[in-house]
Structures are given as structure tokens and as C-alpha cells.
């Protein structure tokens, strides 16, 4: 083959390839509108189905949250109503002891026995309060602290070593789980 024939063959095959590409292109263009119409319907239907699914999920979640809110409100109301049950249960045995002490106090004239009974009841009460998380605020030889102490008197002339220290406790203070429920009333050295 000479050069011209090669060019013709090459050009001819190139033309044939182009013609084949052109033939395929219109076919693609014709099928594309049909495919796109089907594609448009499928995504639309899929989107509508997804919207319905999301609506259903939202309804379930809303109902679930509403039930949760009602349940927590009910539990909170029960806690407020019956919150002191633990404290009352701890104090009832002490009341029983005090009633027995009063009954037995009328039968005896020995003051020492009555005093000993009252001390036992007092220690039992302190132990019950400790079980509930109540602690006495320490005041003996303590530095004055406005967070837990209330100064009701200033005592002058106590010396430098007693300055700013608690000298005397006039009324005990108590904490419930590290929260002050009653400040200790104290006299402070000046």
C-alpha cells in the first residue's frame, strides 16, 4: 500500500469510526430523555417515601419524649411527696426510745439513770442523722470561717494566738452532704 491508500484507509476508518460515534450519540440522546423521566420519578417517589418514613419516626420520637416528660414529672412529684420517708424511718426508732424513757422516768427517782438513758437516745439520734448525711460543723479550736460559722460575739483581749479563732460555740451548726443547713453560732477572739 502506498501512502495515499494508507491515508484513505486511515481516513476512511476514521470516518467510519466517527460515523459510528455519531450514530451512537443520537441513540444516547433519544434514550436519555426516557431514562431521565424514569430517574425523575424514582427520586421523587424515593423522596416521598423517605418523607413518610421521617414523619413516622418524628411521631414516634415525639410520643416517646412526651411519655418520658410525663414519667419524670410523676417521679419528681413522688420524690417531693415522699422525699422525707428515709429521714422519718430513721427517726421513728428514736421516738420509740424516748417514749420508753418517759414511761420509765415516771417509775424511778434515780436522776442518773434518766441522764444515762437520755445520753443513749442522744447518741442514737446523732448516729441516725449521720446515716442521713448530716454532720456537725467543727468549732473547737477552729479558725473562724464565714462559710460555716456565724459570729454572734467578739471577745477582746484573748491574745494573738486566739485572734480570728472560735472561742466558744453558742449553738451547733450542721451540714447536710457538705451543704450548710445551719451555721454554727460562735464567739470569736479579737
Description:
The chain has 190 residues and is of the alpha+beta class. It has 3 domains: 1-83; 84-132; 135-190, Head domain of nucleotide exchange factor GrpE (Nucleotide Exchange Factor Grpe, Chain A, domain 2). Helices cover 65% and strands 15% of the residues. The chain has 3 helices and 6 strands, in the order αααββββββ. It has helices at 3-82, 85-107, 111-131, and strands at 134-136, 149-155, 166-171, 174-176, 179-182, 184-189. The protein has a 3-stranded antiparallel sheet. A hairpin with a 2-residue loop joins strand 4 and strand 5. Helix 2 (85-107) packs antiparallel against helix 3. Residues 8-33 have low confidence and may be disordered.
Write the layout of secondary structure elements.
Elements: H1 3-82, H2 85-107, H3 111-131, E1 134-136, E2 149-155, E3 166-171, E4 174-176, E5 179-182, E6 184-189
Parallel strand pairs: 2-6
Antiparallel strand pairs: 1-4, 3-6, 4-5
Instruction: Kindly report the average pLDDT value.
Output: 81
Number of helices: 3
What oligomeric arrangement do these chains adopt?
single chain
Largest sheet, if any?
Answer: 3 strands, antiparallel
User: Structural class of the secondary structure composition?
Assistant: alpha+beta
Radius of gyration: 46 Å
Strand order of the largest sheet: 1-4-5
Task: Indicate how many domains the architecture comprises.
Answer: 3
- Share of residues in strands: 15-25%
What is the number of beta strands? 6
Terminal Cα separation, in Å? 126 Å
C-alpha geometry: elongated
How much helicity do the residues have?
Answer: 55-70%
- What is the N-to-C succession of helices and strands? HHHEEEEEE
Unreliable spans: 8-33
Amino acid at each position: 500500500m502506498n501512502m495515499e491508500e494508507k491515508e484513505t484507509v486511515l481516513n476512511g476508518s476514521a470516518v467510519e469510526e466517527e460515523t459510528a460515534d455519531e450514530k451512537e450519540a443520537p441513540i444516547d440522546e433519544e434514550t436519555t430523555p426516557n431514562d431521565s423521566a424514569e430517574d425523575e420519578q424514582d427520586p421523587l417517589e424515593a423522596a416521598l417515601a423517605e418523607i413518610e418514613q421521617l414523619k413516622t419516626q418524628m411521631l414516634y420520637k415525639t410520643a416517646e419524649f412526651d411519655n418520658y416528660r410525663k414519667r419524670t414529672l410523676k417521679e419528681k412529684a413522688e420524690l417531693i411527696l415522699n422525699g422525707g420517708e428515709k429521714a422519718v424511718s430513721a427517726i421513728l426508732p428514736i421516738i420509740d426510745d424516748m417514749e420508753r424513757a418517759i414511761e420509765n422516768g415516771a417509775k424511778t427517782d434515780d436522776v442518773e439513770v434518766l441522764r444515762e438513758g437520755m445520753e443513749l437516745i442522744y447518741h442514737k439520734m446523732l448516729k441516725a442523722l449521720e446515716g442521713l448525711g448530716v454532720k456537725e460543723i467543727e468549732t473547737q479550736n477552729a479558725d473562724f470561717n464565714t462559710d460555716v460559722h456565724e459570729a454572734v460575739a467578739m471577745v477582746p483581749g484573748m491574745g494573738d494566738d486566739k485572734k480570728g479563732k472560735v472561742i466558744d460555740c453558742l449553738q451547733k451548726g450542721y451540714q447536710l452532704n457538705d451543704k450548710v443547713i445551719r451555721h454554727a453560732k460562735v464567739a470569736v477572739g479579737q
